[in-house]
Amino acid sequence: MRVGSSADVRALARAISSVEEQRPAALDLLRAAFGRAGTATVIGLTGPPGSGKSSLVDRLVEGYRGEGCRVGVVAVDPSSAFSGGAILGDRIRMLRHAQDDDVFIRSMATRGHLGGLAQSTNDVVDLIDAARYDPILVETVGVGQDEIEVVRTADVVVVVLVPGMGDDIQAIKAGILEIADLFVINKSDLPGADKLEAELRTMLELGASPSRPRPAILRTVAVRGEGIDGLREAARAFLASAGRERRAERRRERAEARLRAVLSERVMRWVVEHVLDGEGWNGVVEQIASRQVDPYSAAEKLIERLEVR
């Protein structure tokens, strides 16, 4: 599918909705997209709430459009407690790009995917990639395990920190040092930027590995567009320095993780639908909730039932 008009953009949006809602046609769409995808550069951005990731994404979109690129954006939001849909704050902030058919912005929620948020994000990225958007920016709302798994799907992982929020401690707790390819100190005009950079450099030195290049540390003030050109260049430099072999290794790791996620989802769904009907599943859950049985024993019993079949 080649997107180049408002009608085609709407078709892409409908395809993503079909996949998110797990409609019967979703698998055919994903199979078709997979063969056409794999060429776009995927840039993942993560960091604590309030670090200015959405402003960075907005400015990156502006910069890439200035280069003539067709840009995709996936904003991974927490699910609404009422509707299960995504909170649209990121899209509101990027409304100035909404009329540009060469910018595709999609907010995502977990929506209860059995395969996890990372898997559903991969599916959406494939659809956007197949529509020939490149690069694709994936923004997450925080630095928890779900978000880390999401950004692992990216070719370049950008961790956004901001002075005065205790980001050094948060980064250690979340294991961000292990996944970052680039660090961005946003709002670097605020007091404490020098201190944050010094502490970050110290942590990187302590955790240095000869097999992995040390991530660059960049400074930006996204609301004023400062440092954005440097960030785009740093992403390109990282991809160039990573080399074909390392990029292939990362993509193989992602492929394995994706296969595991798809397999887990399929097996889980089959167990729920064929080994236990809805009521049976709810009954086991209730037994675990009331401490009548532990989840490990319950899982073993289900496996025994599978073996009997």
Q: What does this protein look like?
A:
The chain has 309 residues and is an alpha/beta fold. It folds into 2 domains: 6-242, Rossmann fold (3-Layer(aba) Sandwich); 276-308, no CATH class. The chain contains 11 helices and 7 strands. It has helices at residues 6-20, 26-36, 53-66, 89-93, 117-130, 145-151, 167-174, 193-206, 228-275, 278-289, 295-308; strands spanning 42-46, 71-76, 103-108, 136-140, 156-161, 182-185, 216-219. The chain has a 7-stranded parallel sheet, sandwiched between helices. Strand 2 (71-76), helix 4 (89-93) and strand 3 form a beta-alpha-beta unit.
What would you say the CATH architecture of the largest domain is? 3-Layer(aba) Sandwich
Q: Return the CATH topology of the largest domain.
A: Rossmann fold
* Largest beta sheet: strand ordering: 3-2-4-1-5-6-7
CATH H level of the largest domain: which superfamily?
A: P-loop containing nucleotide triphosphate hydrolases
What topology emerges from the helices and strands here?
Blueprint: H1 6-20, H2 26-36, E1 42-46, H3 53-66, E2 71-76, H4 89-93, E3 103-108, H5 117-130, E4 136-140, H6 145-151, E5 156-161, H7 167-174, E6 182-185, H8 193-206, E7 216-219, H9 228-275, H10 278-289, H11 295-308
Q: Would you kindly provide a brief summary of this structure?
A:
This protein is α/β, with parallel strands linked by helices. It is built from eleven helices and seven strands. Strands 3-2-4-1-5-6-7 form a seven-stranded parallel β-sheet, with helices on both faces.
